[in-house]
Design a protein that fits this description.
Layout (H helix, E strand, L loop, with lengths): L2 E4 L3 H12 L8 E4 L3 H7 L5 E3 L2 H5 L4 E4 L6 H8 L8 E4 L6 H8 L4 E5 L9 E7 L5 H12 L2 E6 L3 H12 L1 H18 L4 H22 L3 H8 L5 H11 L2 H19 L2
Parallel strand pairs: 1-2, 1-4, 2-3, 4-5, 5-6, 7-8
Antiparallel strand pairs: 6-7
């Protein structure tokens, strides 16, 4: 598979790292277009071809990843209109840019809107994608390979509104999780634990809990019951979270993020 990546910023490099790590494509089959000279020097360390010419990065590419800022996508995509190969598929990871707008800006029919999240940087992300009906079965396989290189879990959705909702969950979700981690560690410190010890325990707890849930496939409520003995410490702590409106706060956070995502897409 030949891949062109337009934009070598944080997320563009995250996809590059994931693609190389998963051996989706070899370094010799990847071209990255980046306007900043310093970034081009850094990106060249991956052994891929690096250029300041976006059109050059698209030549011969089976998959073109548009990893530019949302405000830059229209001009970048329009500048590449007509330059994509007839059988190539174009993937956009620009937040808020709707699928019809992406197709209009690129002048290309086989396009896919992808929303990754921060852990994609280490190949442990989550993602959703929304594809036009023009994307063929073989192109879908290519898209799956690219997304799978940066995400341990991803789902296909069928509307921009569903992308916006997913953005509020998995896109913004790391922020909610980091706030929870911070609050847990701060609480432990307030009770007398050393901060490095608190962070180590909390991070391991969050990671282990997520991995255990994924491996067992059990409902979160069932897992919660496994660790909650009647009248025990967990029961006491959970009662305080419920009394403080923990569930309601999470629900409100997702709703607010969803509404904001919809506003940005208008």
């Amino acid at each position: 598979m030949r891949i062109g990546i337009i934009g070598g910023g944080f997320m563009g490099e995250a996809f590059l790292r994931g693609i190389l790590r998963a051996e989706v494509a070899s370094p010799g089959d990847i071209a990255v277009a980046e306007v900043m000279g310093a970034r081009r020097t850094q990106l060249s360390e991956h052994g891929v071809r690096v250029t300041d010419d976006a059109e050059s990065a698209c030549i011969g590419a089976d998959v073109v990843i548009l990893a530019v800022k949302p405000q830059d996508l229209p001009s970048v995509a329009e500048g590449l209109s007509g330059k994509f190969g007839r059988d190539s598929v174009v993937i956009s990871i620009a937040a808020g840019v709707r699928l019809d707008d992406l197709r209009r800006h690129t002048g290309h029919r086989a396009v896919v809107r992808v929303m990754p999240n921060l852990p994609a940087a280490i190949g442990a992300g989550a993602a959703v994608y929304y594809a036009t009906s023009d994307v063929t079965a073989s192109q879908r396989d290519q898209v799956d390979s690219v997304i799978g290189a940066v995400a341990t879990g991803y789902v296909e959705v069928h509307s921009d509104d569903e992308v916006d909702l997913a953005t509020a969950v998995h896109g913004s979700g790391p922020g909610y999780v980091y706030l929870f981690i911070e609050a847990m560690a701060d609480a432990a410190v307030r009770q007398g634990m050393k901060r490095p010890d608190a962070l180590k325990l909390v991070l391991s707890t969050v990671r282990g809990s997520a991995e255990y849930a994924m491996e067992t496939g059990q409902h979160p409520a069932a897992l919660r019951n496994q660790v909650t003995s009647p009248g025990g410490t967990t029961a006491a702590g959970l009662a305080e979270l419920e009394a403080a409106g923990f569930r309601t706060a999470i629900d409100s956070a997702v709703e607010a993020a969803y509404e904001r995502a919809r506003d940005l897409g208008e």
